[in-house]
Amino acid sequence: MDLAEFRLRYTLNALPELDLIELDQQLRQAAVLIALYEVDNRLELILTRRPTHLRAHPGQISFPGGKVEQSDLSYQATALREAEEEIGLLSSNVEVIGALPPHKTFTGFEITPFVGIVKQTFTPIIDPGEVDEYFTVPLSFLMQGYNRHTQRFKRKGIQYPVHFIPYKQHFIWGATAAMIDLLCRQLSCEKAD
């Protein structure tokens, strides 16, 4: 899928049905950037691996992003600020084309994902305090439904979906995999399992 087709599908296709998680706790607000860029007429999705020394989600695969700070003017500003801090992606080099619904986690976050297109090639500058690894995944790989998996797990007597996506040596799971799954289902008009 090239950038023009992505824009068309993202704009025209309705958001698929959500599998909502109900949590009885106060959630900290966070925002992430689902950043895509075009290489040789194909789209790549930017991901990072968090360092193991971090308190929240150590070693997990994630989008650039983080907690909302009081100085942020909006959740979108949070996502763009964090992308610049973590991987050196300047906000002026991102065209935000929309957002997905907020995603709640058992670890106490409500994460708002923003979908953005990287306008020009950039060289990642990794902040080692926040990112252990920067890598990309072809959107074409993620769009194949058989590469995205969902299992149901019980927690406090309630069953919840847990999404995961194995890719090369990486294991993408949890909120990041759920957001990828939602975006891919929107782009392809798939229904939830």
UniProtKB/TrEMBL annotation:
Its cofactor is Mg(2+); Mn(2+). CDD domains: NUDIX_CoAse_Nudt7. Residues 27-159 form the Nudix hydrolase domain. One of its GO terms (molecular function) is metal ion binding. SUPFAM superfamilies: Nudix. The keyword Manganese applies. It comes from the Bacteria. PANTHER family: MITOCHONDRIAL COENZYME A DIPHOSPHATASE NUDT8, NUDIX HYDROLASE. This is NUDIX hydrolase. It comes from Shewanella halifaxensis (strain HAW-EB4).
